[in-house]
Amino acid sequence: MAEKDPVEVIRQALSQTLVFYYPFAGRLREGPHRKLMVDCTGEGAMFIEADADVTLAQFGDYLQPPFPCFHELLYDVSGSQQITNTPLLLVQVTRLKCGGFILVIRFNHTMTDGFGYQQFINGWAEMARGATKPSIAPVWRRELLMARDPPCITCNHREYEQVLDTLPSSNHNLVQRSFFFGSLDIVALRKLIPKHLQHCTTFDLITACLWRCRTKAMQIEADEDVRMMCIVNARGRFNPQLPLGYYGNGFAYLAAVTSAGELCRNPFGYAVDLINKVKGEMKEEYLQSVADLMVMKGRSLSFTTVRSFIVSYLARVNLRAVDFGWGKAVYGGVAQAGAGSFPGVSYFFSAKNGKGEEGIIFPIFLPAEAMERFAKELITCFATKTNLKALCNDFLIWDHPGEEDQAGPCKQTA
């Protein structure tokens, strides 16, 4: 691939991939009762070509959000952030002076979730490497998740409760940082929980730690309710399961709710237990109830944002493994925390720290003063702080050495 232009290779592969994923080349329209539908117009995606007079080394030794010059690495085309009547994919490929390149992608989340997106981008990469079709054929089949007739809400959906916010907004002077959890950090957290919770997952441990530390850092009044909403993959919870190749949204929010006082006063295991129990509610009946709720309430329904935080576990969506022909990416993950205008979302994804250790990284937005308190609270969670370091839209970077960088092959450290 040494003599090939990544811009042309990736652009051509995208056009070929959209033949199979043709809804991505269309536009969303709003129908009766605000129902969204795809108009398969074939208008295509929006693709931006750029060149930067910098090397990858100038981005620093360790790549993680926030990224310098991010808004230049994904040009915000006017009107492109709308839900309807705009391209569903915005792609920018930036060539670097060292011979590497950066691929940034913004996609419309109403079309696909993390696993569907991974399937799409893997197919795209296969086409770039010479395939004539994706190895996994895309499946639309959105009718599989339709509401019942008549719809019937059978579960308690605290993630959609309408809560009045009587306090001033905390979304001022926001800063973003990323934090890394290595294997020793997970071991340290697991030592803090009782034996009957030892079966819990790494997700449960990190989420509970994040929830408690964030609540303390935000200094929320003890009698106020706080929500930790977990995005749970529903793909294996249907009978029969969703077919291989299904690339639509297949998840639901689940809300663990307690008072700020109870969360902060109780031992760490209290938060772990709440999250573990609420994940156990994710069954087919719950998902069907969510679909029925959507139909009965319509698109005016939105999840609770007041004193809420959302986490999404994307460690299994391994974007670092994506290979467009130049090998694995040096970094592959989200570009920043938040979702749209709501900053209270963090994404967990796999990464390496500066020492080459594999672990979980997550970016987070907080007011500047709360961020300092959050970092201190994280450290107090651990019996040893040796391994925990505050490391000060999807983002993939390849480092292909050119004339300015002859140090060796693609750097595989984060």
UniProtKB/TrEMBL annotation:
GO terms for molecular function: transferase activity. It comes from the Eukaryota. It holds the Pfam family Transferase. Keywords: Transferase. InterPro entries: CAT-like_dom_sf, Plant_acyltransferase. Gene3D superfamilies: Chloramphenicol acetyltransferase-like domain. Belongs to the plant acyltransferase family. This is Benzyl alcohol O-benzoyltransferase.
